[in-house]
Amino acid sequence: MEMSFRWYGEDDPVTLEKIRQIPDMKGIVTAIYDIPPGETWPYEDIVELKNSVEEAGLKLTVIESVPVHEEIKLGSTRRDVLIDQFAQTIRNLSKAGINTVCYNFMPVFDWVRTDLAAALPDGSNSLDYSDETARSLNPVKGEFSLPGWDLSYQKEDLETLLKDYSSVTEEELMENLIYFLKKIIPVAEEKNVNMALHPDDPPWPVFGLPRIVNNVDHVRTILSSVDSKYNGITFCTGSFGADRGNNLEQIIETAEGRIHFVHARNITWTGSKSFQETSHSVKDGSINMVSVMNKLMDKGFKGAIRPDHGRMIWGESGRPGYGLYDRALGAAYLNGIIDSYQERKVRTNDTAAIYR
Known about the structure:
The chain has 12 helices and 12 strands. It has helices spanning 16-20, 43-54, 70-74, 79-95, 131-135, 155-166, 170-191, 216-225, 237-241, 248-254, 289-298, 325-347, and strands spanning 2-6, 27-30, 59-64, 100-104, 115-119, 125-129, 194-198, 231-236, 259-264, 267-271, 274-277, 304-307. The strands form 2 sheets. The chain has an 8-stranded parallel beta barrel with strand order 1-2-3-4-7-8-9-12, surrounded by 4 helices. A 4-stranded antiparallel sheet has the order 5-6-11-10.
């Protein structure tokens, strides 16, 4: 595995210089954040971003993410034009030497949380999702917003968009995803770019919007719909793991060879559809990170992995979920699991299982 770290560009208080000091840190996961969804990323802008990362002694490992325009998800008459523009971005990324793209097919909103600084028993705070609270909120009224959301929608536009989705079933949204994949994956194959679809976060409908990437059956359907190694997933332990009914090791088995990127995040269940994010330690959360990591390595995962959302600790303030300190601790914790796995394989002369 290759340890990597999310970076939000020059305005990110967590600088590349700080990230490089994390032990065994190799890669950066980032994007061009000022280009609206649907527009092609210029090759020159991609090269500029890549150069800024490499000048800091790191490498640009994964683009997270290239947004999929809502009209593609809705299956509108303009989707072919928008898909063509998305495909050109893939070509430009490949030309710049970038070969993994994380993206999602979540309608309207990216990840959803109801508290950005919920207290934990140790005095730190973290992201929290309460289903009861979520059901009482109306995003059209501007009652809350989250980092990563597209805030360019005006209130009227958002209301119209939510109405457009009100008639879209999960089956129709899945059909629109498969239509998109059948257009994009041939380009990815030609340009040697791994497409890594991120699961829904949280893995159930929110604000009445359909969700179609949240369990093993969905993963099986998506991967079989376009049976190409370039059509893969981002395996996010926190997103899949928020649903108590999901067996993470079963999902790894189902997606073997098609996991192109890993988000390692631990959560603790606080209700049937409620959870709070924790440290990566197996002692703090409901996900056995050691078991999951071992399963990934048993199945030969060799791609980029990043410590996902971290707590805010030691008085740090910043972008919710994306401070430096706890994510750095998470990277060290994950590297300890990897090192222990490799040492065990060396002792048993199973050197073929060493991935770093």
